[in-house]
């Protein structure tokens, strides 16, 4: 099919009609460019949102004590349910619970000192299990482990901000000793991100140590548990609620007695939001594509109509209808493919640039383009152009050459 | 064939003398080419559809033009001259009757065959030139050869030769918009000749030209005719008609006399 004569003729026809060629090309390029951008941004949104969960075990559940809203066995509503360390052990015995641990955040800040530097920070007691669930992302050092917990060691993971204030951002604070009041703690790690914190300015220590040094009360703020594989939280939930309702005496149907935060549920919510966004993108994308198709078709329709006289001349000097149809289709194919390619490259290039520049926020990161979708979209546009070129061209070559020549 | 006769290949500048013309006629007669008709039209009719009305334009044309003839068609405006020539050039369809071109019945031709016949048998010269505006003179002339699948080099060589013959050596790369009417018509004539067709049809080729240029164009046609080509030319100009060997008068869609 490669006929050099046809290509030179085509090159001339396109280059001598720059406006016509340009308009058609622009329509296709723009359509594909916008589509690629849309798809890429959508992907970035999806990735960014999913990344919010990446530091947390997706099978984890957080339980907080709430306030009762139903009366129960003669007890009035409005009582505070405060969870205790024994609840942790009881929950650990339930089938389907993989691991469980307490968290206790002390309300007031404690003054800490390193050398001459001091600052007040909040202390959060967790167990080795929580360290796992919460996946503090460490800049250096290690997580709190079982041994720290069992022996109530005076060890601490400090936030990067804490490091900043106390140790003037020392490169390796691990192994150094800081004082909380008069109690020395050994720094075992530095973290820069943790669930539910805007900036890393807390100090994490073992829960057992916290009780021993700061607050002997057996209460906890929150219990974190993970669900064994093969189980879902919904399987375990009734047992867990029954257990806690018996221990703290509230109606098992009292939905406000406990605040339960199921990460997998949140993930599901976000996923359904995502599928909503995806649907939205499909609609907008299809709309963009259709607008592109209409644009290309319209340009093709008009240009082919405009060329009726040219077709008449060509026929008068011996071109057959097939010659002319082939010429129109060939031109359309070349313009739309080339323009589509340009749009594709521009779109992918821009997305790549955004991705490289590291533009990201809580809900957006690392945008990427699904090439197969973009290429199919291009295919649709090319097809639209071909059909919109073919139909009027067939109409134009059907009439006698003299009629075509009369066309203005 | 006749066209290959060395004496016929004389350039445009050389004026034809009467004895020479007679000599051609003698040769033509000798080879008996006048016997074979190039165009054979019998009771041909054509009507235009104007809305629901049918307006008859050609009302039974009988016409025979032999190979090598030079014929002019005259007649009042609206008498159907262009319509007839378009039918002869297979640019338009006719309704009834018969049109045999060079031995082929034209009516049942498929579109592809019609295109082939237009390309191989006919060179058409329009009053309004009908050049492609985005192609240079040379490219316009070479165009019919493109549809004959002649390679580019050969196309351009042949087109160049014809333009030279038309005295257009220095205008080959000009666009039609950069040419005068006479120059455009020369390009159009060169294009009609480029495939070396046996039949040249021209619809008022001098209609847009001044007297001097018209003279030159007719000179050219006479010369082409002497090369053995059959010519049918529509004209309003008695003087120009007088230069042809036969004048056909058309009136109200019918041929009045020969
Ligand atoms: N496309 C058309 N549709 C309808 N009627 C037409 C069409 N073309 C020509 N006619 C009519 O057919 C008749 C003959 O037209 P034609 O062009 O053949 O005349 P002509 O002899 O060439 O005239 P002129 O000397 O003015 O060029 C005219 O009455 C004209 O109005
Ligand atoms: Mg006319």
Question: How does this structure look, described?
Answer:
- The complex is a heterodimer of chains A (408) and B (258).
- Chain A contains 13 helices and eleven strands.
- Chain A is an alpha+beta fold.
- Chain A folds into two domains: 4-52 and 268-406, no CATH class; 60-261, no CATH class.
- Chain A has a six-stranded mixed beta barrel.
- In chain A, a hairpin with a 2-residue loop joins β3 (110-114) and β4.
- Chain A is elongated, with a radius of gyration of 34 Å.
- Chain B has one domain: P-loop containing nucleotide triphosphate hydrolases (Rossmann fold, 3-Layer(aba) Sandwich).
- The model of chain B is unreliable at 1-23 (pLDDT under 50).
- In chain B, α4 (137-146) packs parallel to α6 (181-193).
- In chain B, the strands form two sheets. In chain B, strands 6-7-8-3-9-10 form a six-stranded mixed β-sheet, with helices on both faces. A four-stranded antiparallel β-sheet of chain B has the order 2-1-4-5, with helices on one face.
- Chain B has eight helices and ten strands.
- Chain B has helices at residues 18-31, 81-88, 111-121, 137-146, 152-165, 181-193, 211-226, 238-242; strands at 37-50, 53-66, 70-74, 96-101, 104-105, 122-125, 199-203, 230-234, 246-251, 254-255.
- Chain B starts with 17 loop residues before the first helix and ends with a strand.
- The site of adenosine-5'-triphosphate has 12 residues of chain B, from β1, β2 and α2.
Which cofactors or ions or other ligands sit in this model? adenosine-5'-triphosphate, magnesium ion
How many structural domains in the coordinates of chain B?
Answer: 1
Mean pLDDT of chain B: 84
Order of helices and strands of chain B: HEEEHEEHEHHHEHEHEE
CA radius of gyration of chain A = 34 Å
Overall shape of chain B: it is globular
Radius of gyration of chain B: 18 Å
**Spatial order of the strands forming the largest sheet of chain B:** 6-7-8-3-9-10
Given as residue ranges, the uncertain stretches of chain A (5+ residues, pLDDT < 50) are none
